[in-house]
Amino acid sequence: MLRDERGLCVGPLPRIFRCVLRSFSALMEDSVPESEETILGSSPNHIGEAEAGSHYQLRRVRIPIFPTYGEVRRLLKVWPGYRKADVTGLHTALAQLRGNPQNPVTWTDPDTWIPEKLSGPTRDLAMAIWNESDHYVNPRYTSGHWLLIRKYELLEVASEGVLELTDTGRDFLENQGGHAEVFLDEQEGLVKLLRVVSDTGPVRLGELVEEWSEYLAKHSNFGRTSTIRDTLRRRLTNLLDRELIVREGAKYLATNAGVVYLERIAPPEPPDELQQIRKLAKECEAAVRTSVREALLQMEPSAFEQLVGRLLEKMNYQKVEVVGQSGDGGVDVIAEIELGVTSVREVVQAKRHSRTVQRKDLDALRGSLYRFHAVRGTIVATSRFAKGAVEAAFAQGAAPITLIDGDKLIDMLIEHGIGVRKRKIELLSVDRDGLSPVENLVEE
Fold it and tell me: Which domain holds residue 367?
């Protein structure tokens, strides 16, 4: 077997053709079955720089339930030596387990459910996974790990069906950031996702969905909205676990380690027109949000209370009454909302200032609920909330208090079109398939 300058094996061309055919046939499905089929020609065992052109074409997001690499590495230390039938047998047994209201199963406690629900070899393997991973990997949730390991040939089936570590698996296990890990990141879209987060800056999950969806349309057979969001969320979790990105509140941003990783494996590509438009739109949104925040802070308290009242009406609250200075216990707005067949009264406190809202403010509002026959409250602020206030907002046994900070308030104003105008821009792109002659599919 020949190797390229990176030490990767260069595989025979026929295997590449078989992979292309397999990828084409997979387009007929919307999910990847957990089969024993591997990505022939796409594994680091079989592809190198000599096939760089084909490499890009073959890149496909194939693993729906994408695991963290830390968990995969632990399982690569457990599964070798067991038979393939042991692992598949465990997954079959787990798939058949179901709880019910009378006898619920707490899957978060493997020490309890494994001996209660499993027996024989399946119990022994489940306990080995749990104990030998230092209680890090829950055996209940390892189907995605198994699919990734088999698809990318990190383990192989040796004599008598026993699992053995492959050269690729050994490279993945021993070298974080090595050839095998980089290849997985490229194939499964993690490099693309990390690049988007790095280039965009602090970004919410919802803001990543459109670009991720477009990437999957080109490089996967996933089409359902729920699948698109779930594959995105799981890959963000993987990058978080490796500390290539961090999460600050509801936003993700690349770490220094993530930027260095990108520079090492994927030189930045010139942005296309659509990416440039997205970047400009992002910059425009950031500027608008800053202007809205400044305008909110400059408003008179009474005007801010009226604004909160208008927002509640846009959110389908009924009987909205702004009481302002006449309110008791810091209550500024009273409203009702339909929850199912019940109408619920809610009191709202509007805080227009830059200081952090403290726990005592929440307690004061909660103490005023009974005066208005309200069952819950909300604090709308232009600033942030102290940790103590956040922890006490939904304390057990106490009336719930919803906390809306400055960022969330601006999100809601934008969503409901208050103080912000939205403009739609139509973008045209060439559909070459639509320009091609339409074949007559009607049989003579």
Answer: 301-415
- Catalogue the long-range contacts made by 106-114 (C-beta closer than 8 Å, 24 or more residues apart): 107/138, 107/140, 107/141, 108/138, 110/135, 110/138, 110/139, 110/140, 113/140, 114/139
Query: What pTM value is reported for the model?
Result: 0.63
DSSP 139: G
Predicted local distance difference test score (pLDDT) of residue 8: 41
- Residue 438 corresponds to which tokens in the numbers above? 């339409």
Sequential DSSP letters for 278-339:
HHHHHHHHHHHHHHHHHHHHHS-HHHHHHHHHHHHHHTT-EEEEE-GGG-STT--EEEEEEE
Q: Is 328 inside a domain boundary?
A: yes
Q: What is the pLDDT of residues 181-234, one digit of tens each?
A: 999 999 999 999 999 999 887 888 988 998 999 999 989 989 899 999 999 999
In-domain check, residue 22: no
Assigned domain for 94 exists = no
338 within domain boundaries:
yes
The pLDDT tens digits of the residues spanning 405-421 come to: 999 999 999 999 999 98
Domain count within the chain: 1
Render pLDDT for 23-76 as a digit per residue (tens, 0 to 9).
333 333 334 343 444 543 444 544 443 333 333 345 589 999 999 999 999 999
Instruction: Report whether 142 contacts 126 (CB < 8 A).
Output: no
Considering only CA atoms, give the Rg of the chain: 27
Work out whether strand 342-351 and strand 376-381 pair parallel, antiparallel, or are unpaired. Answer: parallel
Q: What is the CATH number of the domain that holds 312?
A: 3.40.1350.10
